Amino acid sequence: MMQHLTDDQMQDYLEGNPSDNQAEIIVHLASCRECRMAVVQYQTLFQGLKNDTGFELSPGFAVSVTRRVAPEAPKSSPVPEYLLIGAAVAAAACAIYFLVDLSSIFDLFKGGFARRTALENAVTSTVTGVLDLLNIKSNMLLLSGGALLTLGILDGVVKSLKRGRLYFFA
Amino acid sequence: MAEERELVKRILTGDSRAFTEFVLQYQRLVSHIVFRMVANEADREDLCQDVFLGLYRNLAGFRFQSKMSTWVARVTYFRCLNYLEKKKTPLFEDICGEDQTIADVAGNGELPDEFAVSQDIAGRLREEIDKLPVHYRTVLTLYHLDEMSYQEITKITDLPKGTVKSYLFRARRLLKQRLEAQYGAEGLS
Q1: Which range marks the domain in which residue B146 is found?
Q2: CB contact A168 to B (< 8 Å)
């Protein structure tokens, strides 16, 4: 007759692990009250472990975690920030080109023998152009107003995009 | 798997609702591991948050070579180990050997009156689990609560399969002995 089951045999049996002497174990359990009781105790324990509770997180946990990751950098932003910076730089360059006479600078790139003269002319012309512009109060006001407006619009666009789509910008 | 891929894709394109869905889907698993491994109640929820922040940051690197739940559990497990190391919490291997009994590990210095306070087995079981070493608690949780296989637990913890099984069997034996001592063989069955 088979000896009493070991703890490992009982646990293997309850886990459903195949054993070489599975048939013997079943027969033994049918005839041995002591082992049967021990198996039932393990069964109770298995059930208790499966039904264990007490792991509740606060009700708004998921939302609170989502809020925490919101300001973090997106790794796959559809409109990268450098595009916006590039657009702003391009806009500034266009404004300078429009408001300041740069024709002398372009002469520099046309070649020829009088490069030094052309450089002097370019610097003089650019400085004069900027000074002329600064001397005109109305233009100064217009320029400042335009710059502030552009910055304001860009800031508004960035903020609204951030609000509208999480992780949109870095 | 296809649903998981779609969810990850949505999260990576900046869909906040998708990330909330992700958290709701895995918060049970994460809380099981964190609550089991970390005794300090004040730190548990913060640690769960840290785990999800870490998962979010590394989501782009997840290649679906394992189940998402295995990856989530693995990240959680190692984050908890890291926390315990920082707090200098001794793990089981550091404080006792293979042959120690439940009395040595769990301690039995409580007074009979204190035993009487906890009447139901479930409550008592929870108390006894909390007294077990960290690795025992972890494998018990992953196997019974999260219904993970030995293979999955091995992937999560980096422990050999034999060690996982040994921890699990020993933990159950210890719990059974302890509950039996409290309620008697008849009371437990």
Answers
A1: 92-188
A2: yes
